[in-house]
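Agenda item 2: iron/sulfur cluster complex prediction
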Amino acid sequence: MCLGIPGQIVEIIDADTRQAKVNVAGVHRTVNIACIVDEQHPPESCVGDWVLVHVGFAMSRIDEAEARKTLELLQALGEAQAELEAMRQSAV
Amino acid sequence: MKYVDEFRDPHKARVLIRRIESLIPEIPLTRQRPLQLMEFCGGHTHTIFRYGIEQMLPDAIELVHGPGCPVCVLPMGRVDDCVALAERPDVIFTTFGDAMRVPGSQKSLLQAKAEGADVRMVYSPMDALALARKHPDRQVIFFALGFETTMPSTALTVLQAEREGIDNFSLFCNHITTVPTIKAILDSPDMQIDGFLAPGHVSMVVGEKPFHFVAEHYGKPIVITGFEPLDILHSLWMLLRQLADGRRAVENQYARVVRPDGNRAGLAAVSRVFELREFFEWRGLGSIDHSGVRMRDEYARFDAERRFAVPNIRIADPKACQCGEVLKGVIKPWECKVFGTACTPETPMGALMVSSEGACAAYYNFGRIDLDALVARREAAGEG
Ligand code: SF4
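Presented output:
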């Protein structure tokens, strides 16, 4: 639950409600970006950014190279799978 | 160092272990007893067991696995409250997957579901809100649990529900706080901790400042730590460096994610929706002052505890269960008499066996311990 997983913002769905589409290891899902948006980073400017996603919320902007390495490690060790599975299966 | 090959950079890991070893003689305390270093967070516990980090460390270092797995410290009475809410015919009860199997006094949420309660696993509180939108004739309750890491997400979900005027959505709020709990650990007479690995993702939300008291008031070093095995080794080395230099400070090893001030937007949402409870009950640790939050009066209509009556009965843990002692680092998981026999991940007796972040489950899954030998030893000692 406390792990979090890196993903890349690919599209802003609704700037007002801070909803964006994030690609996490190939799984696309709607993520709330309220926590990483401020005066210097309006929603529109966030496309392409790498973020740490935690229970459906982008919680921190992270460096791309770092993010890729972390993702690789999580996948290689089977740690990412549970998180991705939970994302896919969420009962909505 | 058999497992070091799994590291992102095995060479770096070896160098760090060597550096850790060479610092030990510089710390006078190690001549009297092993250093006790606590990782507070369940995510760290998981990494430590997953990679066998304890086995790589010199004997002069003992890792104490802290209470930072929110599922594990949930008291049985709260699970019973969840089940009672879930069994209401008008309710869709939503929860993170980790919480499904935690035993209550009668049953777990999973068992309640098997008996017909509408319990659904969600990945995000936003998914629970989406369910409320989709089923306006049902009451959707989200089981909000976790430390400061998850608080912004549930707070923001409530604010979104308010904005949209969704009135069939509520939280059963069981969020707990890190700082008062670390303080309780430092004040507890049966614990002697020489340094802390501070939880990385809690710090991502709250920042560095809330941890200053650990260094300033209690004179203990504390390092904010990431979740990869190299992060843990690096932070342990930073802790030892401080101990060797006689310095006591908050240091941030996880600066790639944690900003010194934390997350402003997240904190603002949290303080708008939640306020501190006078105390909160923890499994195994008892009641800790200010260690939980509840919803502010302004958000009472989103508070499941106030909207629906919950039984709210305190239930004592089963007698054989020694979760409390494991949580405090007084005994190791395998020293609990039911570890691996009556209590396994398939049939957990205590909460530490439920989540992969619990010390017992982590040890059971990754402990590289010879269970048969353990059971034989126990039988020989007449403990059954
Ligand atoms: S083995 Fe089971 S009962 Fe014993 S401390 Fe661990 S979780 Fe608790």
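Discussion summary: The two ends of chain A are 19 Å apart (CA to CA).
Owner for follow-up: CH.
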